[in-house]
Amino acid sequence: MMRSICVYCGSQVGALPSYQEHAKLLAKTLVENDLQLIYGGGNIGLMGVLADEVMRLNGRVIGVIPIALHEKEVAHLSITELHIVKDMHERKAKMAALADGFIALPGGLGTLEELFEMLTWSQLEFHKKPVGLLNIDHYYDDLIRFLQHSVQQKFVHKHHFDILLQDESAINLIQKIKLAGL
User: Fold this and answer.
1) What DSSP designation does 42 have?
2) φ, ψ at 162 (rounded to 5°)
3) What is the pLDDT of residues 6-54, one digit of tens each?
4) Residue 3's closest CA among 181, 153, 149?
5) Is pLDDT above 90 for 1?
6) pTM score, two decimals?
7) CA quadruple 108, 38, 94, 180: dihedral positive or negative?
8) Nearest to 126 by CA among 96, 159, 162
9) Would you place residue 161 in the very low, low, confident or very high pLDDT band (cuts 50, 70, 90)?
10) Domains, the chain, ranges and CATH?
11) Which residues, 6+ apart, have CB-to-CB distance to 128 below 8 Å?
């Protein structure tokens, strides 16, 4: 049974107001589907927007943050549960262990690294959890095209590309993830 979704997203809010709007829609969708949020534990950027909205809607939020970031005062101290861990490796492992599925919102290098790690772990069958991409305002279109190119060039198998669930709607993506997680 799907109980929690790990969301990877930016420590910045991005250039478009729609990134924040869709982060709030995802928060609403998580709460309406009784899914707790697992995330990086920050109070800044889309991370903070998402966590704040889940909390405002009386959902559950579990953050996982390395001690170095906690000491820089970017930890979100008003969430349901905050795990302080040694480093980024421990953070990612803890988030993956707590989650029943994964979603990437727009973000930077860290978001991409986390997304690709979960895709790789799925490819290697280290987990069988669904991985999704919320493609807000076509943010990930070029990445999707690149991955399709990688398939065409025979560096990525089509069935590994197909692991990545994609949608522009939080509601539709959550439904796809729930179906894939059965």
Assistant:
1) B
2) -70, -15
3) 999 999 999 999 999 999 999 999 999 999 999 999 999 999 999 999 9
4) 181
5) no
6) 0.97
7) negative
8) 96
9) very high
10) 4-180 (3.40.50.450)
11) 122
